[in-house]
Each structure stands twice: as C-alpha cells, then as structure tokens.
Amino acid sequence: MPGITAEELGEIREDGSVRGRGEIPWGRLFAMPQLWLIAAAYFCYAWGSWFYFGWFTTWLLHGAGFSVAQMGLFASFPFAMGLVGNLVGGVASERLVIRYGARRTYPWVTGVCLVATSGLLLGMSVVHGHRAIVVLATLGFGVMDLMLPSAWAMCMGLGGQFGGTATGMMNTAGNLGGWVCTVVFGYVVKATGDYNLPLRGVAGMVLVAAVLFSRVDCSSSLADET
Is the pTM value of this prediction over 0.90? Predict the structure, then answer.
C-alpha cells in the first residue's frame, strides 16, 4: 500500500492482523476525571440532537403550527445542514489544531458551537414566523454538528491507545441523555400542553454542555500501553 509508514508496518503482523493491545484498563478509564467530564458534557449535548431525532417533527406540527406537507419538506433541512456541519467542522478543527493545538482548539470549538446552538434553540421557541423557524432550526442542527468532530477527537485523545473504548463510554452517556430528553419532553408536554417549554429546557441543557466541554483538558490522556 503506497504511503504506509514504518510505524504502521510495525503494528501489523505478517498475517495482516493488528498486534494485540492487551486488556482494556477499565479501572484507569473510570478513574479519569476528564473522561467523566466529557461524558457528562455529551449527556447534556444529546438533549439537543435527540430533540431533532425524536420530537422535531411533532414540534413543527403542534408547537410551530406547520402543516403536514410543510413539515415533510422543512424537517429535512436541519439534517442536510448537519451533514455540511460535520464535514466543515472536521476540516476546520484540524486546521485550528495545527495552528493552536488540541488543548485550546477542541474546548473552544465545542463550547462556542454549543452556546450558539443553545441560542438558536431558544430563538425557535419564541419566534412565530415559519421562515424564521426554518432558518433557526436548520442553523441549530448544523452548528451543533459543527462541533462533533472536535468532541470525538477530544475523547479519543483522552483515551489514548484505548480511544475507541473511551468514545464508546462517551457515546453511551449521550444515548442515555437523549433517552432522558425524549421521555422528559413528552411528560412536560402532557402536563402543560406547551411544546415550547420543554424546548427551552433542551436549550438550557445544551448550554450546560457548552460549559462542561469548555472545561475539558484533553492533554491529560491515558498513557499508551506497550
């Protein structure tokens, strides 16, 4: 394979398998405060993403007054923008890391993007024009996904040689947060009849995520094991 390095060849056995890395050091991973911090941040962030996955279309119909036909068209806009956000975020964060370093770049990118997302979600809950709602909702998901490459790179850095396990722990916390959001959102709507009140709660949780991400020190990673 052209371009393969000597270090990569050293990792690969003659039969093509990768050399074993030993047992996963669960105790050391669970003892990392920064890994708990990023897991908590991802738990809160997931309230925003899972609102779009689970409640966005219902909110458009009952909270924002869209027709079924309008919802069917405009509900796809945020996810298209999310695709763009992921791609742009990956390229931009890489260039920022080269210039400023990972320790400064990743907390800054995740924090700023999620503060902006929180504001956009809050704006969705107070505006009434359909055009404004579509713009805010589309930007909200796009900006939120802009920070995802930085969040995952940050967690992989914390895990070191076991970055896959560390990101699995973070993503598990995110799925738990998304599930809690989905359930709580429904109960708040049932109790109040207001679809915008729980959306403001989602915006608040995303803001908490921004604060937590901004405090993660991804320079303190699990030491590689031989």
Answer: no
